[in-house]
């Protein structure tokens, strides 16, 4: 007797996995590619754990055909990857045809395997030559970003339909220019604010230009979110801490993109911390910018890893903080962080020390849908969700196996959370597990493994983890329960 599949996914729902150029490609000095800010930052003593860098990474630049073949065997319907500005316009200016050619080969391989290419234009690898002119704190970078985007569209516009401008501008502004944790590793509230505006400006201009070229493109942006909950929903101080965290992390980007305005409460919170930074930011926001930034979008990518339980006073039982990757100093990425305290809620945590809370994804999708996406006619996709665990590979029958039961539960739990959101009326049409491969986890180097496919960095061998096998079964069944016991990968 065959069980009837329960909890099916709608027929238009896309199952995929995601990566980013600097994290997997390697070939950092090949075919005309030049340094990005991550190549340069990786050389700063103490910036990346074990002094790791992306020189080789997963060697995907040379192994892309095998990697695409593996995606195909696993049943992925779509693959979210990023193109490297540093390959395509190595110093931000002239086009490097060899760099463009790599992405043509990759896209052709995907199309040949019947996998939908989901292209992200900026996943943090700004050409170092542009950083030397101020990077994202310089308004010119927004213009150059659009020129680079148009180069990619010249090359791939006939074959790629889905274009995401930016991945997680919160990371490429505040984590990078204010907290000092990501490249270029600066510690400035002013630069963080300017970078966020210029990133969004680059996004909006690019949407406008691509739309003018081809109305049929699916255009979007990917943002990363937290779900900020007050420790005591009756405490005004806890509610205010949650408001400020939500405002600095989520609304700082959602509001300009969907409503054409930065959140006024957060601008004032920032002013109380650094009035000069806000003055400089207000000068940078020129008339018309917010209209450009709020250009209508087809899709919003939602990246969700974890939420935060916060209070306005220190908790008697604070969570053990995640360790910093290195001893290099860092600041808070939140300019207005005073009086926001994290609380422990006893949830399981991944090896990033991030809480596992699938219900947070349901809450996030529902909120973003009703407050921002639905009124704008924008569809949601979960463009990243995943977990790092201390995987233990084992040799069984001559094969490498990874029995990553926690990651199996993580994937199932979050897919269930998406079904819950759909049941509540949210139009969310896809899921991309982060990441397809173990890869260069930024300041954590190769220490943290997020993949559903294990990478042996000595041999570059790939091995599908149990989570990858389970994901393949779910994709084959197109349902969460009653998945077949096995699937050929
Ligand atoms: C995202 N934080 O990054 C990125 O899009 C991926 O490239 C990355 O590998 C993945 O999540 C896992 O970390 C983030 O410190 C990195 O809050 C750091 C933070 C958030 C997102």
TrEMBL record:
It comes from Microbacterium terrae. The active site is at 168 (proton donor), 384 (nucleophile). This is Beta-glucosidase. The keyword Magnesium does not apply. It catalyses: Hydrolysis of terminal, non-reducing beta-D-glucosyl residues with release of beta-D-glucose. Substrate binds at residues 23, 123, 167, 305, 434, 441-442. PROSITE patterns: GLYCOSYL_HYDROL_F1_1, GLYCOSYL_HYDROL_F1_2. Belongs to the glycosyl hydrolase 1 family. GO terms for biological process: cellulose catabolic process. Residues 311-339 are annotated as: Disordered. One of its GO terms (molecular function) is beta-glucosidase activity. InterPro entries: GH, GH_1_N_CS, Glyco_hydro_1, Glyco_hydro_1_AS, Glyco_hydro_1_beta-glucosidase. Keywords: Carbohydrate metabolism, Cellulose degradation, Glycosidase, Hydrolase, Polysaccharide degradation. Pfam families: Glyco_hydro_1 (PF00232). One of its GO terms (cellular component) is cytosol. Its EC number is 3.2.1.21.
């Amino acid at each position: 007797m065959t069980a009837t599949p329960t909890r099916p996914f709608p027929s238009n729902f896309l199952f995929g996995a995601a990566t980013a150029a600097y994290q997997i490609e390697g070939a950092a000095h090949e075919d005309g590619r030049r340094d990005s800010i991550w190549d340069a930052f990786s050389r700063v003593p103490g910036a990346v754990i074990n002094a790791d860098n992306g020189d080789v990474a997963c060697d995907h630049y040379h192994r892309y055909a095998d990697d695409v073949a593996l995606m195909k065997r696993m049943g992925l319907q779509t693959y979210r990857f990023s193109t490297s500005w540093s390959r395509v316009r190595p110093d931000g200016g002239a086009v490097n045809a060899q760099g463009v050619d790599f992405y043509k080969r990759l896209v052709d391989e995907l199309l040949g395997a019947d996998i939908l290419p989901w292209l992200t234009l900026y996943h943090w690898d700004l050409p170092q030559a542009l950083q030397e002119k101020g990077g994202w704190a310089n308004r010119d970078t927004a213009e150059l970003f659009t020129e680079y985007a148009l180069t990619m569209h010249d090359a791939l516009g006939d074959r790629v339909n889905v274009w995401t401008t930016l991945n997680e501008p919160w990371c490429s502004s505040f984590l990078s220019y204010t907290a000092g944790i990501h490249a270029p590793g600066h510690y400035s509230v002013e630069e963080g604010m300017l970078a966020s505006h210029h990133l969004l400006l680059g996004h909006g201009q690019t949407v406008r230009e691509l739309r003018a070229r081809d109305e049929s493109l699916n255009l979007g942006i990917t943002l990363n979110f937290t779900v900020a909950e007050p420790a005591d929903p009756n405490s005004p101080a806890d509610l205010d801490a949650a408001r400020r965290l939500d405002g600095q992390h989520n609304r700082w980007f959602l509001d300009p993109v969907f409503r054409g305005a930065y959140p006024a409460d957060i601008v004032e919170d920032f002013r109380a911390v650094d009035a000069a930074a806000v003055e400089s930011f207000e000068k940078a926001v020129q008339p018309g910018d917010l209209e450009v930034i709020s250009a209508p979008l087809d899709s919003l990518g939602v990246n969700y890893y974890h939420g935060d339980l916060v209070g306005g006073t220190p908790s008697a039982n604070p969570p053990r903080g995640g360790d910093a990757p290195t001893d290099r100093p860092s600041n808070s990425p939140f300019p207005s962080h005073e009086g926001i305290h994290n609380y422990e809620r006893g949830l399981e945590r991944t090896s990033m020390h991030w809480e596992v809370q699938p219900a947070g994804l349901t809450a996030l999708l529902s909120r973003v849908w009703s407050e921002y996406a639905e009124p704008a006619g924008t569809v949601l996709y979960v463009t990243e969700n995943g977990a790092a665990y201390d995987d233990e590979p084992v040799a069984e029958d001559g094969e490498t196996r990874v029995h990553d039961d926690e990651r199996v539960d993580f994937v199932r739990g979050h897919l269930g959370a998406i079904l819950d959101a759909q049941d509540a009326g949210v139009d969310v049409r896809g899921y991309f597990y982060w990441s397809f491969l173990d890869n260069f986890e930024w300041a954590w180097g190769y220490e943290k493994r997020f993949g559903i496919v294990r990478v042996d960095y000595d041999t570059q061998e790939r091995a599908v983890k149990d989570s990858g096998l389970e994901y393949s079964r779910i994709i084959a069944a197109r349902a969460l329960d009653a998945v077949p016991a096995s699937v050929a990968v």
